[in-house]
Each structure stands twice: as structure tokens, then as C-alpha cells.
Fold this sequence. Notes:
Blueprint: H1 8-14, H2 18-24, H3 37-44, H4 48-60, H5 74-107, H6 113-148, H7 150-154, H8 163-186, H9 198-236
Helix pairs in contact: 1-9, 5-6, 5-9, 6-8, 8-9
Amino acid sequence: xxxxxxxxxxxxxxxxxxxxxxxxxxxxxxxxxxxxxxxxxxxxxxxxxxxxxxxxxxxxxxxxxxxxxxxxxxxxxxxxxxxxxxxxxxxxxxxxxxxxxxxxxxxxxxxxxxxxxxxxxxxxxxxxxxxxxxxxxxxxxxxxxxxxxxxxxxxxxxxxxxxxxxxxxxxxxxxxxxxxxxxxxxxxxxxxxxxxxxxxxxxxxxxxxxxxxxxxxxxxxxxxxxxxxxxxxxxxx
Length: 237
């Protein structure tokens, strides 16, 4: 397979197991999914042979998830994002924030970066909850309506072209991706200090899992749901 001339998002869409390879190379496959792999390899001075070998091995191995999101219909992709990812952020996000604040208060003197980590996560969660409301009350209902009755969808939109709210959502995705890259940088890739207490350890593991889930969430929207929704909306006109 000619990986170098493919967009990163398309590679991950074909086989989600490759997301772990890109994460290991610090390659953004969700917000940066529209970039050609050859461009990223050149920018980051990556050994392309080793990277391609790792991607090929990932393709041969069982994926981390049993789901092949690319094969799902658009409606099921939206259902999964809203009923799994959105619900999980609303349920688990505030609990993790309390933990981050607790750890920062207790250990911030020894590890001052924890105060910034808590601030970054607080800002991320607040903005994500606002982001989810916009998707759940404006964008996704329109996509459902478009799937149920194409003709009715023509006159139901309050935002003109569907590309406008999608561009806003993608911009907000970029902001959250940047925040979590900063969190990962501050924590040296979620490295747990040897003297860390149990709360500190749990916080780091949960932050890392939150970021991994966010990557999958954004990847499905940016590289599958949004392009297909735009394609279908254009077919109505």
C-alpha cells in the first residue's frame, strides 16, 4: 500500500490499529487527518521505511477495537459518537476534573506543572461540553433529518450550508487537540513519578485514556461523519 501518498485520516479510517502507530510517532491523526503522510514525514524528519513497516504490521494484526467505523452507515457513526463519546465525556469528565484539582492542590508544590494541567483540563472540559451541546442540538439533528427525509432537510437548516457549522466544529476540535498536546508535554507523555500517590497515578491514567478516546471521537467526526454529511448535503442542492 502506498501510505506516503495517502491522507493520515484515511489510513486510520481504513484500519484504526494504525492510530497507535501514529500516536507513537506523535503524529496527529484526528485534527491533522487531512494531511498527506509524505508531508508529515518530511516535516518531522521521520524514517519513512520504519514508519511504513510499523503501519504494515498494524494492518496485519488485530485492531485495538473490533469496530470498523468506516464500514458503518452515517447514522450509526453519529449514534456511536453521541451515545458513547458524548455521554462518556458528560459522565466521566467532571469526575476527572475533581481528581485533577485534588492532585494539583496536594502535589502542586512539588510538581508545579500539575496546576497548569488542571487549568488546561478545566478549560477543555468546559469548552467540550459547550461543543457537544452544539453538535447534539444543531448539527447532528440536521444530519438525522437529512437521512430521514432529504426533501424536508432542504428547508430545515438555520445555518445555510452545512459546511459552516462543520468548519466551526473542526476548529474547536483543533483547539482541544492543542490543549491535550500541551498536557501530554507537561506530563512528559503521562509519565508517573516514582513517588506518586494512588490519586496521582489514577489521574494520569485517566487523562491519557481521555485523550485516547478524544482522538477516536474527533477522528470519526473529522474523517468520516463530516465529509459524508457534506457530500450528502451537496447532493440535495
